[in-house]
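Consider the following assembly input.
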Amino acid sequence: MSIRIDGVSKSYSAYPALKNVSLTIRDGEFAALLGPSGSGKTTLLRIIAGLEVPEGGEVRFGQRDVTHAPAASRGIGFVFQHYALFGHMTVAKNIAFGLAVMARSARPSGEAIRKRIDELLELVQLPGLGHRYPSELSGGQRQRVALARALARQPRILLLDEPFGALDAKVRRELRGALRLIHNELGLTSIFVTHDHEEAFTLADRVAILNSGEIEQFARPAEIAAEPASEFVRQFLA
Amino acid sequence: MRRSSHLREPPAVKALLIVAALGYVALMLLLPLGAVLAQAFAAGAKAWFAAVTEPDARSAIRLTLLVAAIAVPLNMVFGIAAAWAIAKHDFRGKTLLVTLIELPFSVSPVVSGLVFVLLFGAQGWFGTWLQERDIEIIFALPGIVLATVFVTLPFVARQLIPLMVTQGRSDEEAALTLGASGWQMFWRVTLPNIRFGLLYGVLLCNARAMGEFGAVSVVSGHIRGETNTMPLHVEVLYNEYNFVAAFTVASLLALLALVTLTLKSALEWRHRDELAARF
């Protein structure tokens, strides 16, 4: 599902976090929001998710205007940097959360939910770990569970906030590969936030580079490397 | 002798520290508690039983339980709401709210009681208005409840605020992005995350609500069999040189405190796996 951001602005107390940002992400695209800390990349992602409300501008998923729609109704999956798994629930319960909170009439049967949990554990390569608690898993495994949980309700859009930020280099590489495969297999439209330009360039179809609340350049990695749009981009990639 | 760590003291110092700590606890906590129990049972178990079942004692016990049953749930709901607002939202006056919640801890209980007399007493601001309508607050149950609520207000909130601030907002945000409604988020994510802190706060709040003397003493009027709570009843009996009865009711109060402690430890023990599973 395509995502269109049109003239979005947001400020925190005094300083502006986003200044009139516009961006269109195509259906099925894997996009990265890249920038130094304080550039507004996470704020933009949270506005797309519905965790922040913009002061101006518009967000559209396909034809639907979601600017003021609550996060719960947007049909997105969201992955947090520090996993945000529910510590008092097993892995299986964590994954099933999105299904368990559905209205009774729409909720799948217990049997269907169990089947879905197994499918998702298979998808993120953690089969048979459903009975464990998050604290019994490694960081990489936790992030895989968080990914499975975000995908349980079959969202068309997947949003990831520095998903590899808390992981070491080896786990990070493995998880990157797995994420790209899942994105392709499910035909998702995905946006991830990172401050690591190598990560953005290896994983994303297109990269948006942000600086002080504005988009400096939004293009394919090869194009950005060949023709940086500004002095900031040139320096940031150096 | 080699020291294995910079934090390890020589054995003699260690032994001295342990003995000092245990001795202090024995002298300041166990000895008085033992004295209360010894005095209470000085005339035998029969006298003890008679003293707790006589009508005025029964009425004091009933009143204490009733007041706690009203004040504790009120402060529990308030504590959760206040901690939620402070930990999960940014708003003007947040620091002021945190400071105000702590106020009852720094105000003398007697003053806390007097405030309500000044407001609702016969000579108070709303005194005439209340009298015209035949509403009794001071020297009656509402006054005792108000004073108890005031004194025990910080317990739950203070337990929860630092806990919820540390936990942050991401669990709640995760629940929202997964399609949960506000209520589902609260019941399924927030409440389980804070339940042990909440339980601890409620137990402390309850212990204080049942044991409060100063504030309640000011607003109660000490009407035997009517507005005497257990702590007040103890004082009345003591002043009448009825030591056995006084210590009997006191021992019951002390027992309530012990039950509270045991309950807390038992719950922690039963849920130790889950507690250890938290990260």
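The CA atoms of residues 108 and 177 of chain B lie 47 Å apart. Ask yourself how this observation constrains the way the partners meet.
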